[in-house]
Amino acid sequence: xxxxxxxxxxxxxxxxxxxxxxxxxxxxxxxxxxxxxxxxxxxxxxxxxxxxxxxxxxxxxxxxxxxxxxxxxxxxxxxxxxxxxxxxxxxxxxxxxxxxxxxxxxxxxxxxxxxxxxxxxxxxxxxxxxxxxxxxxxxxxxxxxxxxxxxxxxxxxxxxxxxxxxxxxxxxxxxxxxxxxxxxxxxxxxxxxxxxxxxxxxxxxxxxxxxxxxxxxxxxx
Amino acid sequence: xxxxxxxxxxxxxxxxxxxxxxxxxxxxxxxxxxxxxxxxxxxxxxxxxxxxxxxxxxxxxxxxxxxxxxxxxxxxxxxxxxxxxxxxxxxxxxxxxxxxxxxxxxxxxxxxxxxxxxxxxxxxxxxxxxxxxxxxxxxxxxxxxxxxxxxxxxxxxxxxxxxxxxxxxxxxxxxxxxxxxxxxxxxxxxxxxxxxxxxxxxxxxxxxxxxxxxxxxxxxxxxxxxxxxxxxxxxxxxxxxxxxxxxxxxxxxxxxxxxxxxxxxxxxxxxxxxxxxxxxxxxxxxxxxxxxxxxxxxxxxxxxxxxxxxxxxxxxxxxxxxxxxxxxxxxxxxxxxxxxxxxxxxxxxxxxxxxxxxxxxxxxxxxxxxxxxxxxxxxxxxxxxxxxxxxxxxxxxxxxxxxxxxxxxxxxxxxxxxxxxxxxxxxxxxxxxxxxxxxxxxxxxxxxxxxxxxxxxxxxxxxxxxxxxxxxxxxxxxxxxx
Lengths: 221, 482
Known about the structure:
The complex is a heterodimer.
Chain A: H1 3-26, H2 30-55, H3 59-85, H4 98-115, H5 117-122, H6 131-147, H7 151-173, H8 178-206
Helix pairs in contact in A: 1-2, 1-6, 2-3, 2-7, 3-8, 4-6, 6-7
Chain B: H1 2-20, H2 26-51, E1 54-56, E2 61-63, H3 65-94, H4 100-122, H5 126-144, H6 150-185, H7 194-200, H8 206-224, H9 232-239, H10 242-271, H11 275-295, H12 301-322, H13 325-356, H14 367-370, H15 372-385, H16 392-407, H17 412-434, H18 449-464, H19 468-480
Helix pairs in contact in B: 1-2, 1-4, 2-3, 3-4, 3-10, 3-13, 3-18, 4-5, 4-10, 5-6, 5-10, 6-8, 6-9, 7-10, 8-10, 8-11, 9-10, 9-12, 10-12, 10-13, 11-12, 11-17, 12-13, 12-17, 13-15, 13-16, 13-18, 13-19, 15-17, 15-18, 16-18
């Protein structure tokens, strides 16, 4: 596979990652969200494998397999089970002001391109153009966590941010050193365990996973 | 060798405590484990004091004057907190707030948390630093929600989400740092080692590092509890069990600030300007002012002292940002004395709220009559924390103020305003709590007096006479951070 073809495929995959990020921003149904998240992880893992192949960076294969097993299979599976157990799979979240959210999202993408410009100029890697997309994915995940009110959605936003970070590491430097990648994966796994416990606690205490119910701790005037 | 013991004892203790569960002697094992950690910390410190900085474990660990003093502090406060938590948690069990399963969980996670902080301090790898920081967050999230009340769960959720986001941004900063380092040091794990980075910091690309610092600042700043990314802190401190509030406030914030300062040294070396310092000064000053005024409005006692922690971390961040030998010395000292004083305050506050079965300050009264140790402990703790002489906080705040007058005189009024408002706010609240007759609903308790006396004596001793080795130690750390 020659480099320019690989770069093209990689850009296409980056576009798909961004698309899924936007999709998640406005997806109301729980299952739809999880599927979008799994797709995002899938594109990410393919992109990582291609970069690893073309650049000859073989540790990226491990990262790619890690992404595939963790973010495409394990985490969506856990979320599926949690949602079924908590009987919230039919819930439809109301999202206020979709056009506004989309506009902010677009602004964030432009901002990301602007912010990463100095890095892009310095880099010689074939993946340099996707760094902006990676940062945009991080910021879109953040936006999702801010605009949505459901605990599960917030967690998916958090995991989408993590996807963006992973993508950033791949596109800026062909991946972080292996010890760091493994450590990050371990942290995500522990986090998954913790939010699983949390969903049950929130559900039993508040009878719903709507985080707007949690408004006890405020500054009193 | 002491380094290996220092890290493996808490990890091992965590496993043991998870295994033995809620036996009668579990708190004693917890104390014993922390004491062993402290002993290892002291011996490591003596080693470094005699032989200078050292690398260990195939360059994986790095110990110098800066991190070893924080490691000793961490192990010391965790030991005293373990002593305090023995009596405190026993009382909580009698009140039926926690059961056996949660006690098992509490002890195991406490030790894991100590391990994560020590790993964070001692690792040489900037990536592992991040991982350990995340681990420290994750191990305390479920401790904050230990009581399972609606507000405790809300606080823990906020803590989890906000710190998760913050720390994610810090990882992006670390990626950018690696990007710049890889150009100079080549690919692979070597490029993230702090010892390598600090040697070549002059060659790192300044534009990338300034960008990276913004992300690192917001990311680690969230964990330090700096305004405007501090929202998780008062909630997590007020809703968790008091021993956890004490270690969060006294230790975790310090460790996060440590990470930030390490990154700042690299960025300064690369850019050669005061860019990173200015950002830190801005965040620090904003934290001081906002926290001081928030202190005035608090009704919950633990929440009030949480805001006081934000103020003091703001002071230390501001001083590190200001730079220069005096301010840096002041900041290092401030981290030490704040940690000792604040954890001691939380010990007394924990007992005070147990005596009155509430954290509402309006209902806490007559502490000195009820229990002299708790009453006077709180009184002296507050006198120390607001910066009254002869306590150690006075020395550090005085140094920082002097440096500010010299280097950034136009900021002095803001700093003084913050100090003054915090002083007034805390005193106004504490006086009615400690003096006066004991109310009828007050219940006697057996307080853990050793930790409080120990901490206050140390803060007082540092304020009156700074031992020579401590002085030298800080001077070496100041050299490192230049």
